[in-house]
Amino acid sequence: MKKEIDAKHIATVCAALMSSDAKSAVKYLDDKTIVRATWHNKPMSRNRSETMVVTIGAPNYRERATIARYKRDYHNPWVMMEDVFFKQWPKKAK
After folding, report:
1. What pTM was estimated for this model as a whole?
2. How many CB atoms lie within 10 A of CB 87?
């Protein structure tokens, strides 16, 4: 059975991504559930529309490592679950 997710978590992640210049934003709900919003393409001023992908479900391997690191360092995973984490766009090679 799927877990019920409150719509405010989705709105929080989407609003945080739209107000930053990051590629994706992740909110950890618990050890096994995340909400992630990712831009489909890099937003530009000349684009007429933008596409954002919202993923709800289990964390990937990097996110599981982040959860384990926070549990190990802080001994309280709720410290991590209050914030939205960002992943930046890669830098262009010169």
Report:
1. 0.84
2. 13
